[in-house]
């Protein structure tokens, strides 16, 4: 006798890999590294145990932000090829579990930061989570093509938080580090958006290439790269770093501008089959790692 009970899709039991995927570990690496550099270049140093704890808190907060982002955008992620295999749209986890995981990590990271270092750093950490989840994910991203311009502030907090965790105050150098990442974010993400434009269009996300077209996006990538270049050189020009950082930053930034210019004025595929925007996106990640790595090396050399 056939059953009349309606069936619903079963959600597979999540394992630790699914919870790890919620934290967006590929994004977390850059967040942790820039936060670590901000902390290590701060004057006076920090107890190694407390320093490790502070970086752990930054990592946990980044993971919490990623989890809450995926909880809120589960339906959107299911519409995009780039994200359809994430735990929620793939049916390996229910949304409530993702929400509880993200909220729990958020509270734990902020409280641990406050007790281990100082409450100024904890407040900044809480602000970075709220900015990413509420201001960027819930408000800006679905409403305006300028979402990543303003929302980029969320990813720029780590070096500032790392510095504050070590010192308890703000100074010009960490503000400039914040500004570098803030201005780096639009050309970085718009380069990605150019070659995954169909995904954003299918999901109804008003990214710049979707609402303004490729030509405008390419021009904006180059235009935003110019103030980013100025911000990258500013620590050296203001005497806050040594020549190692200054020269290396100038070379790396000149190459970034060259790639951004190729995106702005060309649409042809390169000889190796890679589009200029894909090349810029790949280099932009390496650029930030190298820039902050050289900043740290420069700091250590000046301390000798």
TrEMBL record:
Its main location: membrane. InterPro entries: Protohaem_IX_farnesylTrfase, UbiA_prenyltransferase, UbiA_prenylTrfase_CS, UbiA_sf. Pathway: Porphyrin-containing compound metabolism; heme O biosynthesis; heme O from protoheme: step 1/1. The keyword Hydrolase does not apply. Belongs to the UbiA prenyltransferase family. Protoheme IX farnesyltransferase subfamily. Converts heme B (protoheme IX) to heme O by substitution of the vinyl group on carbon 2 of heme B porphyrin ring with a hydroxyethyl farnesyl side group. This is Protoheme IX farnesyltransferase. It comes from Sphingobium boeckii.
């Amino acid at each position: 006798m056939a059953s009349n009970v309606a069936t619903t899709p079963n959600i597979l039991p999540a394992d630790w890999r699914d919870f790890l995927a919620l934290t967006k570990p590929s994004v977390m690496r850059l967040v942790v590294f820039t936060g670590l550099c901000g902390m290590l270049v701060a004057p006076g140093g920090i107890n190694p145990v407390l320093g490790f704890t502070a970086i752990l808190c930054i990592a946990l907060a980044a993971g919490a932000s990623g989890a809450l982002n995926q909880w809120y955008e589960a339906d959107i992620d299911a519409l995009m090829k780039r994200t359809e295999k994430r735990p929620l749209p793939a049916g390996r986890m229910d949304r409530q579990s993702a929400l509880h995981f993200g909220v729990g990590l958020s509270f734990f990271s902020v409280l641990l930061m406050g007790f281990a270092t100082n409450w100024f750093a904890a407040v900044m950490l809480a602000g970075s989570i709220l900015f990413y989840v509420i201001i960027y994910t819930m408000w800006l991203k679905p409403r305006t093509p300028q979402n990543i311009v303003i929302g980029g502030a969320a990813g720029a907090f780590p070096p500032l938080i790392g510095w504050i965790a070590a010192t308890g105050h703000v100074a010009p150098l960490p503000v400039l580090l914040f500004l570098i990442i803030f201005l780096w974010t639009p050309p970085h993400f718009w380069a990605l958006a150019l070659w995954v434009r169909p995904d954003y269009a299918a999901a109804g996300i008003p990214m710049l290439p979707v609402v303004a077209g490729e030509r405008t996006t390419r021009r904006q990538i180059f235009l935003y790269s110019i103030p980013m270049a100025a911000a990258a050189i500013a620590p050296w020009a203001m005497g806050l770093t040594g020549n190692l950082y200054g020269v290396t930053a100038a070379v790396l930034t000149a190459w970034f501008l060259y790639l951004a210019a190729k995106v702005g004025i060309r649409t042809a595929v390169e000889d190796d089959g890679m589009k200029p925007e894909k090349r810029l996106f790949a280099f932009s990640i390496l650029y930030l790692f190298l820039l902050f790595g050289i900043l740290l090396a420069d700091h250590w050399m000046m301390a000798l």
